[in-house]
Amino acid sequence: MVIPRWVCQGSFLLPLFLAACTAGPPRDPMPAFVPGSRILFQGDSITDGNRGRNSDPNHILGHGYQFIIPALYGEMLPERHLTFMNRGISGDTVARLQRRWKTDTLDLHPDILSILIGVNDLGSGLPPATFEQQYDQLLAQTLTALPHIHIVLMEPFGLPVGGKKLIWDASYHAALLERIAIVNRLAAKYQLPIVHLQKVFDDACSRAPADDWIWDGVHPTYSGHELIAKEWIKVVRAAHWTTPATRPAS
């Protein structure tokens, strides 16, 4: 090891310098990731991220927040033997999730399930009440089939960029907020942690223009995906799950 001259000139700095060089990076306390955990990301194109459809580990998770999180914790906590999976499909709605839910979610037996859905339901003109009913049924089905699962809900989100800028004030923003409110109601009903992404992106616009974070009003840039990953980690770290998930009282 080469010791800098400024350290040698102040001998009292040497112990501190050596400690800093040998301590290694701090370990992230992530109690939710118990040894052997299976973590599944579900959703639409934002989660799909052009993921591979085979077992090639170089492409299997796609690119975006659903890659950033496993990359961080796969390296940080290798002794826990975590398994990260991605089954997001571009263009999906809640109804499409329902049709493939058994194969792409229940049969995978995840310990942690993260769901990001809603913008395609909004774009298709699906009534908010129907969106809420379908999403509610999906969550109830999951908690019945996998009573020990932990579910994380993620808000749909957007910014007035690209084509969305033209309709943002007239209709899109209000409709988006309505879907966000629905996801928050479902999180409260089932006592699930929720990742408040709209606020994250709104706040980020005080640091840089909207198109730094989302390029077309819906899909994040690489910077936007980092925002999502950081907020997801914060929420899941704070969840401190200690008991199995249960269905709400009827």
Could you outline the blueprint of secondary structure elements for this entry?
Blueprint: H1 5-9, H2 14-23, E1 38-43, H3 45-48, H4 65-76, E2 83-86, H5 94-104, E3 112-116, H6 119-123, H7 128-145, E4 150-154, H8 163-190, E5 194-195, H9 197-204, H10 222-239
Parallel strand pairs: 1-2, 1-3, 3-4, 4-5
Helix pairs in contact: 4-10, 5-7, 7-8, 9-10
Brief description of this entry?
The protein has ten helices and five strands; from the N terminus they run ααβααβαβααβαβαα. By secondary structure, the protein is an alpha/beta fold.
Distinctive features:
single chain, 250 residues, alpha/beta, Rossmann fold, 5-stranded parallel sheet, 5 strands, 48% helix, disordered C terminus
What does it look like?
With about 250 residues, the protein is an alpha/beta fold. The protein contains ten helices and five strands; from the N terminus they run H-H-E-H-H-E-H-E-H-H-E-H-E-H-H. The protein has helices spanning about 5-10, 15-25, 45-50, 65-75, 95-105, 120-125, 130-145, 165-190, 195-205, 220-240, and strands spanning about 40-45, 85, 110-115, 150-155, 195. It has a five-stranded parallel sheet, with helices on both faces. Strand 4, helix 8 and strand 5 (about 195) form a beta-alpha-beta unit. The longest helix has 28 residues, at about 165-190. The radius of gyration is 21 Å and the shape is globular. The model is unreliable at about 245-250 (pLDDT under 50).
The structure class reads: alpha/beta
What is the CATH C-level name of the domain at 28-156 and 170-197 and 224-239?
A: Alpha Beta
- End-to-end Cα distance, whole Å, is 65 Å
- Number of distinct helices: 10
What percentage of the residues does DSSP assign to strands (E)?
5-15%
CATH superfamily of the domain at 28-156 and 170-197 and 224-239: SGNH hydrolase
Mean pLDDT: 90
Please summarize the sheet with the most strands: 5 strands, parallel
CATH topology of the domain at 28-156 and 170-197 and 224-239: Rossmann fold
SSE string, helix = H, strand = E? HHEHHEHEHHEHEHH
Strand order of the largest sheet: 2-1-3-4-5
CATH architecture of the domain at 28-156 and 170-197 and 224-239: 3-Layer(aba) Sandwich
Rg value: 21 Å
Helix content: 40-55%
- The low-confidence runs, each spanning 5 or more residues with pLDDT under 50, are 244-250
Overall morphology: globular
Q: What's the total count of β strands?
A: 5
